[in-house]
Amino acid sequence: MFTEASWLYPLKGIIYFARHPFLYPLLRRRFLPAFLLSIFVLVNLFLWTYLPQVAFLAIFHGRRLAFLNATFLVLGEAAAITALLFESFFVDETLVDVFDATLINEGCGDLVSASRVVDPAAGDPVKQLGKPVTPSVYSPFSLRQIIEFIAFLPLNFIPVAGTPLFLVMTGYRAGPLHHYRYFHLLGFSKKERNDYLNRRKLTYTWFGFTALILQLVPVLSMLFLLSTACGSALWVAKLEQKRRRIGNPNDPEPGPLYEDDPA
């Protein structure tokens, strides 16, 4: 169904986050450092690298397209740098909390309790979150993703189609990382995780594509990072509904019912 397309879930996460005030404290906890870090990185990149990249891209694209594509290129660089710094030092714990609280609110508290203490009597889903009993990582640091991001940057030199192709290729790698936490909660081994992802490459690519576009929005990229974690959890909740209805404990989305269709 169109409404269950994977690329919609990052957008659903924005709406869900806005409609559920219990998530707001998680945003307030990180908003100021995220805002300041985003502004610092963005201003410096545009100040020092924008015009040189425009001049270089003009060789391949012509003057008009060079300005547009250089804007996307700098925004992509700013998003990558900010996300790397912010996720590494500030926000991964918050992303886990957003993801887990959304799952609890969607009736998947038993899944979360496999990795951390959950107190149903504590109040709203965020207050129910206790200390982790196993390692809690939303999205692991990926040197390979950073190297591939740098390697794909030359795609922006291709006129017109280069920037969309760059977004698709980087989305291909980024999409699966948003469900790393889910696979940990299911107890998947690395082989099981890779087998599952290999059957659903296109679906995760489109999720990553939308998530990456949201990361290109100046200043608000960190807000969208949190809302995308919320959207990722909403997708998990839908997969869990299917898995529990069918009674398959090992596959959140059994093969015979799956179609790798972005729409």
Short description:
This protein is an all-alpha fold and 263 residues long. It has twelve helices and two strands, in the order αααααβαβαααααα.
Globally, the shape reads globular
User: Could you list the spans in which at least 5 consecutive residues all have pLDDT below 50?
Assistant: 254-263
Order of adjacent strands in the largest pleated sheet: 1-2
Structural class: mainly alpha
Q: Whole-Å distance between the termini?
A: 7 Å
Mean pLDDT score: 82
What's the helical proportion of residues?
55-70%
For the largest beta-sheet, the strand count, sense and barrel status come to: 2 strands, antiparallel
How many strands in all? 2
Question: What is the H-and-E element order?
Answer: HHHHHEHEHHHHHH
Rg, nearest Å = 19 Å
Provide a count of the helices. Answer: 12
Percentage of residues in strands? under 5%
Q: Would you give an account of this structure?
A:
- The chain has 263 residues and is mainly alpha-helical.
- The chain has a two-stranded antiparallel sheet with strand order 1-2.
- The radius of gyration is 19 Å and the shape is globular.
Comma- or semicolon-separated keywords:
disordered C terminus, two-stranded antiparallel sheet, 2 strands, 263 residues, mainly alpha
